[in-house]
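Comment thread on ticket #2218

A.B. wrote:
> Attaching the input chain for the structure job we discussed in standup.
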Amino acid sequence: MKYILLMLLLGMGLFHASPKRYVKVTGTFFLVNENNRFGYINEDGKEVIKIMYRSAGEFSEGLANVRIDGTHGYINKLGKMVIAPQFDFANPFKWGVAKVLKEGTPFYINRQGKEIAAYNVYTDIKPIDEKRAVVETQSNKFGCIDKSGNLIIDTVYSSIYFYGEGLAIARHLSISKSERGEVGVIDKAGNVVIPFGQYHDIRTFGNRHFKVNYSNDKGERLTAITDKKGKMVFEIEGKNNWYISGLPYCGLMKLNFYKQWKSDSLGGLMTSNAHEGFMNLKGELIINDSSYQRVSNFSFNRAIVKDNARNQFLIKTNGGKIESDSIDKIHSHQFINGLAIASYQKRSGIIDTNGVYIIKPTFKGISGLYDGYFAFYQEGFYGIKDFEGNTIVEPIMKSFDRNGFKDGLLKSVIDKRTAYVNKQGKVVWKSSTYANYKYFQRNIDYRKNSDYNVYKNKNFHKNNNEKFYSKEIKDNNRFPKDALSVVVEKISLIDKIKNRNYRKARSYFVHVSNRLNTGIEFTGLNGRIEMKVQAKDKKGRWRDIEKRLSGGFCGHSIYRGYLKSNQYWTFMTPKYQGDFKTTLRIALKYLDPAKKDNKFRKWDTITVYSNEYPGSVNPAQFWR
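C.D. wrote:
> Ran it. Output below, let me know if you need it in another format.
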């Protein structure tokens, strides 16, 4: 009888053995990375969505964008793929819509994965609240729409910037490309608050004020502070020996004073005897002490001052100094929740607005103040304490997320591995691979920065700054004759046996050789020469899948590398992986040696290409 009843229950599906399932859908899910695969854990550190994705994003509006192979889709908190992988790249859902891309073309979808025709005339949609969003058209025109895609503010502006209180600084489109359109202020409905053309420039100034530029009857350009409706509060005259350098906090604005201008040896102008102080919103100077070398903005009615003798102390909004004989240095830029980090006799603590230590200066370092706790440094590691002095996390973290605890967990690095710690100090999850683990088999969905560094010789001498680390070409059959060449080759088994660093490397050797009868110069940034990987797209066009490192605008990081005749460099380049099988090559730029005598303009460059080799990439590497 019992056997018959059991069979009936099994047949009805009322009694069954369940395999492991990821069913918890409440609470926050935390993104984790294990062996270059992504998944999600809950606040207890339990895996709730399997660590299997090539890339993944945070959950937003109940969905997360993930990539299994070469394309992106969306999963829900049950781990179910609710929008099938089909996009080259996908962004998080906001405002009920998500921006996705195919072959570099952006468009918008709803939560069912369907295109939203009313939205797809725009290249960008930025929600400003639950009902409105700023949009940008393909012709770089800005306006506002509602959730149905209806225009609230017509796309007649070259820019719209909502800064709060329902107001936006907008600029009209200009007929002339060389001129900027008139600027004004509008509200969420598009109504004009400050007329266009009344001021040359308008900028937010905090505390419901604007900083504006305008011309007087004499044609002089002046600056003023206005209220949020554009009514002038006070004028800043050009003859004043100060300028406003901070926003209004606690009713006071930070000023930079200069006492005197004088000509330097090059005929320019420079300041001397500069100091800082404060003005109120009526334009009245409140604090003007020439010994105040640096001041912070006010916070909690206190400002931090460093005087000419390098002493640091606190002042009140009336300029009154708060005396303290146990503060050598104040490390915070402002007060956070009424507290600041200070030190005495090379030990750090935490002071209140009266300069009194609520946490005694006993720590080697304090690196962050948060709501109810702080991070401290001890013997090379970080820990967390509350303001009662209780230890939340022992000093075991080599680094941590400076944003602090998020939904009860703190992301950190412990034992060289990424970890999450809860507010009871328990490590709830820790990866098995190193946090700085490099996976040479690059299965990525973006254009990576090119990373081909030219290193100086270990025996480099300061008076011989053209001597870079390179090797002499001894085998004349190895590289093309009478040429600067780029040769890509696989790492041989012999090289892997000889060098343990190559044994697990999924990469290629790249040799740059100079068999010309002259040395060759290269431009670059931060030690990197201009060399990058290219791949053929679906139409057979060569396109960059690596990009040059940006920077160097001031010129300090720009340099010229030099490769002597009959010398070569060796680099390593990743063996990319992806869904799209194609052909790759490497492009290298160098300075034309025939144009080196022309010192008054930039040298012409020559591009040389490597041998072609087979490989695989993901679609987004061509454009993202």
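A.B. wrote:
> Thanks. Noting for the ticket: The CA atoms of residues 73 and 84 lie 5 Å apart.
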